[in-house]
Amino acid sequence: MAHEPWQSHTEHRPLLERQRELHALDTALADLAASADGAPRHGRLLAFTGAAGLGKTTLMTQLRARSAAQGFTVLSGRGGETEQEMAFHVVRQLVQPPLAAMPEPARRAFLGSWYDTVATALGLEASGGVRVTDPAGVRDGLDWVMTRLAVEQAPVVLLLDDAHWADAESLGWLASFAPRIESLPLLIVVAYRPGDLPPDATAFRSLVDHHENRPHALEPLSAAGVAQIVREHVGDGAEEEFCAECWAVTEGRPFEAVELAIRLAERQVRGARDDLPVMRDLASAIKGPGLLDRLRRLGTTTVRFASAAAVLGTSISPDLAATIAVVGVEQAAQETAKLRAAGILTDSRTAGGNVEFAHPLIAAAIYQAIPPALRVGLHNSAAVAVRAAGLGPTAAARHLLEVPCEANIEAVECLREAGREYLRAGAPEAARRMLTRALQEPPLPEDRAALLHELACSTFLVEPAATVSHLREALAEPDVDPGLRASIVYRLTQALAHTDRMAEAASVAAEEAQQATDARTRLRMQADHFVWSAFRSDEPDSRGRSRKLARLAGRLSGRTLEERYILGLRAWDAMVRGEPRQTVLEHAEKALRGGLSWTDEHRGFEVPASVALLFMYCDQPRRAEELFGKGIAECTDKGWRGSHLALGQTLLGYIRYHRGCLAEAEDQVLEGLRVADRVEGAVPAQWFAVGVLIQTLLARGRVAKARRVADDHGFGERAPNAVIYPDPRTVYAELLLAENRNADAVRLLSEVGERLDDRDWRNPAWCPWQMDLASALAPAEPERAVSLASEALRRARAFGAASATGQALRTLAEVTGGPAALDLHAESVCLLEGSPAGYELARALVGHGAALARNGKLPEAADRLYRGLETAVHCGAEALAGRARAELSAAGLRPLPLRYAQTDTLTAQERRAAELAAQGHPVAVVAKELHLTEQGVRQLLSSVYRKVGTDAAGLAAALETFPRSCP
Questions:
Q1: What is the pLDDT of residue 5?
Q2: Nearest one of 708, 953, 932 to 836, comparing CA atoms
Q3: Residues 100 and 149: beta-carbon distance below 8 Å
Q4: Is the pLDDT assigned to residue 3 strictly greater than 50?
Q5: Cα separation of 771 and 757, whole Å?
Q6: I want to staple 90 with a disulfide (CB 3.0 to 4.6 A). Which of 77, 269, 483, 938 is the partner?
Q7: Is 350 a residue whose pLDDT tops 70?
Q8: What share of the chain is helix, strand, coil (3-state, %, to 5)?
Q9: pLDDT surpasses 70 at 128
Q10: Residue of 459, 437, 427 lying closest to 86 (CA atoms)
């Protein structure tokens, strides 16, 4: 089966001196056929390059014919010199034919949940409202569509001719998709002129240049090859000198050689020396000025019709060309026939009886020869005709880009509609071009602010600095609608924040809140002000802002979304300040009660994500995971698969890190970093991901790998002005500590502590800088180390999370040393057994065991070290497990085999113990019920807390959704 939107009239042209290229094609087709017969699938990419006229199109035509003859599905596309402004134009050529063959219900079922994400990019009608679609989500959706086509219609050959003229969005998608076709029954073949690739096609150029099959560069035909073509048409009597001159004038270009030979045959030239003047005249007529002279001899009406066709592009509707050229239907049919007979036009294989130019060189020559004033007029007529034909605003708008500005309100509206469609298609750069042009037209004064806002939405991902300029200009317009003004302010603060101008973002929101007359708008602006102030690392009056936030939140019930955002911010502020965790949880639950959307385009996802993360700091990470799971699902359902997805996956990894699931955390964060690295403008998400990844690698003992990650991403003592968690400087100091660079770590951590204390951010659960600094100072300044650890413990107790308090106790015990540390170690273990923090429990157990052994208490030491080893192994903390083994060996003890395999399900005994504890029964009662010792129950419940992902306070709620094990 073949879906073929184009084909040259040279389909049966002989392929001379192309044995190498044909062998490569035949080999690729044979491999593709073998994959259909059950052989291992091996997707391939082939590229053919060469200057104009060297036979790339003929080679692609030959491949199409061979593929179709073997029953392969053929998807074809071609770039057009005048159509590069149309985003996803080539993708539509490739995908629309097989989709068009499906009934509407089948097409929707085929696209499934991806329908609304990719519908606009594919030229289908999306069911969702006007919105900005995430370009990363569109690329992922197109990957899915092409993958499904490749599997369901296997084997598939995808052909792209004239790739140098393909639109940037299609070329960018192909460059990202092609490396992932290894296991698909798919062959991708591209042909292009390397010198004409646009400068920004770096990803595509890198793909073809560094692929296992380097591009096949087509060479001009030899003199013998051209002679063979000439003699096939004029007869074997063509003289050698004549044939050599034919080779010289065509420069060995197959296209020109064949066209020349055809014209020679039509003139009945015999190929003698005397025929050389005629041959030279004919040669000049097949290219450049000669081609145009030949066209002019067909008549002025024919020239006008051909010019209209050249303006329309690759697949040309004769009716549209007739409308633009102002000729009747019958006359258009006659002109089409004349141009076919002259070898200028040929039939297109798209539905509807369209035609196309016989070769891109012909189309280019005719288009470039149109006088500038006439060309403008033809494009203007084309815009009107295309719009009237119902082909959509984007098809019409690309013609308006070629027309001078003349304050045409209809042109402004068409360009704006095209811009909105491109935003829905995930093509912000194309939208920017359309909306910039609309602004230049210009629009009516009352529409200028709205247009500037739309333009800012298009530049947000590709040029955030321009976004700021457009939005400030929009705010300066008179009488802006209040709702639009609020949206402009939000987008402006977001753009400022994303360009690391957090202070300006907070200031803009504060000024707007003071000016707002509507109470709801004022509250929304206040929320934005608090957001950007809270996430600004250099906030000058953090305490004052916290007091205002607390007073405001105290008056709110959470009835509206604006109120819930304020309550969520209050919960976050209470957490970083180290207020009692019950205060934090009460405000978080209040914020969540009416719902917080992760995909509200006018509010962002910073607050919902932060509220979800609060439960992790409060020792209820399972609840945090559930909220993140719902938030990520909301983002993916809406097609947001860029920085939102990257941050969501990263923070999910951070939660797994806090639970002690280090291997899972590493995998999750690596995926988040992979997504962030491929998304333009996702720098904040990269900072989050790199910090969590380094912290996870250090916990696993992989210091060298952590250093490579830091160096590869420029992660060090400098950090952005936005608040990132975990705190980047603290994470980097932990890396320095792991590298035994204590002096550097001390300096950096001291700076962190001064900065956070100035803000009154004193929660060691959020940033353990005091504990890290105490560890760094212990060898040289033990008294100061004890003082810092004691203060960290006081702050942790004030917050009330067992994991943070247990960590602080362990640190204090380690810097205190000696027999006095044993009680601190024991309390640390006891608290951490009641938390879901597996890695911290392992550290506490090993630390306590080592201290017991040094103080001669071997039986107790053995129990702690064995349990610490087991817990460390289950966490994936390889270095900690190694330390436990070393401590056992030093104490003359032999490590025992692991007593149980780590699973996420509760045993029957664990489930019963959990249920009894959740009902409020004390340990003694649970022990009696289960016929265990109280210590046995504590260890059993410790396992429950780690598996379920909560402490005792959240156990009852967590058990309601925690799956039961199969009997």
A1: 34
A2: 953
A3: no
A4: no
A5: 14
A6: 77
A7: no
A8: 65, 5, 30
A9: no
A10: 427
Residue that is written with structure tokens 């212990």 in the block: 778
Q: What is the pLDDT of residue 723?
A: 86
* In contact, 645 and 136? CB cutoff 8 Å: yes
Res 39: pLDDT: 62
CA 495, CA 505: separation in Å to the nearest integer? Answer: 8
Which pLDDT does position 34 carry in this prediction? 87
pLDDT of residue 10: 42
The answer to whether 697 and 731 are in contact (CB under 8 A) is: no
Instruction: For residues 615 and 620, give the distance between their C-alpha atoms in angstroms, rounded to a whole number.
Output: 5
- What string of DSSP letters covers 16-79? TT-HHHHHHHHHHHHHHHHHHTTSPP--EEEEEE-STTSSHHHHHHHHHHHHHHTT-EEEEEE-
Q: How far apart are CA 35 and CA 417, in angstroms?
A: 45
Instruction: Please enumerate in sequence order all residues whose Cβ is within 8 A of that of 374, keeping only pairs 6 or more positions apart, or say none.
Output: 307
Give, in degrees to the nearest 5, the angle at Cα 723 between 718 and 729. Answer: 35
Joined together, the tokens standing for residue 389 give: 């034909």
Left if phi > 0, otherwise alpha if psi is -120 to 50, otherwise beta: which for 898?
Answer: beta
pLDDT digits (tens, 9 = 90+) for 443-462: 999 999 999 999 999 988 77
Residue whose entry in the numeric block shows the structure tokens 């003289």: 239
Residues in the chain: 967
Question: In 366-498, which ranges are E strands?
Answer: none
CA distance 941 to 954: 13
What is the Cα–Cα distance from 491 to 476, expressed in whole angstroms? Answer: 15
C-alpha 207: how far from its chain's center? 18
Rounded CA gap, 47 and 226, in Å? Answer: 25
DSSP 188: E
Cβ atoms of 80 and 348 closer than 8 Å: no
* Sequence-distant (≥ 6) Cβ neighbours of residue 424 within 8 angstroms: 120, 126, 128, 130, 131, 132, 133
Q: Which of 867, 859, 967 is nearest to 908 (CA)?
A: 967
Digit-coded pLDDT (tens) for 940-958: 999 999 999 999 999 999 9
Q: Tokens 């994959």 belong to which residue?
A: 35
Is the pLDDT confidence value at 345 over 50? Answer: yes
133, 438 contact by CB (below 8 A): no
Cβ pair 310, 370 in contact under 8 A: yes
φ, ψ of residue 439 to 5 degrees: the values are: -65, -30
Residue in the block written with tokens 């639950």: 589
pLDDT tens digits along 254-265 = 988 988 998 899
The H-or-E segment that residue 606 falls in is helix 606-617
For the chain, what is the mean pLDDT? Answer: 90
- Put the strands of the sheet holding 2-3 in their side by side order: 2-3, 73-78, 156-161, 186-192, 44-49, 216-217
pTM value is 0.82
Contact 265, 254 (CB under 8 A): no
**Closest by alpha carbon to 74, among 66, 82, 84?**
66
Provide the pLDDT for residue 129.
53
Q: Which 8-state DSSP code applies to residue 157? A: E
CA 593, 598, 602 angle in degrees (round to 5)? 105
pLDDT at 208 over 90: no
Cα 434 to its chain centre, rounded Å, is 23
Long-range contacts of residues 647-650, Cβ cutoff 8 Å, at least 24 apart: 647/605, 647/609, 647/672, 647/676, 647/684, 647/685, 647/688, 648/609, 648/672, 649/675, 650/676, 650/685, 650/688, 650/689, 650/692
- The C-alpha atoms of residue 188 and residue 166 are separated, in whole angstroms, by 15
Task: DSSP letter for 722, please.
Answer: B
Q: Is the pLDDT of residue 201 over 50?
A: yes
Omega of the bond prior to 726 within 30 degrees of 0, cis? yes
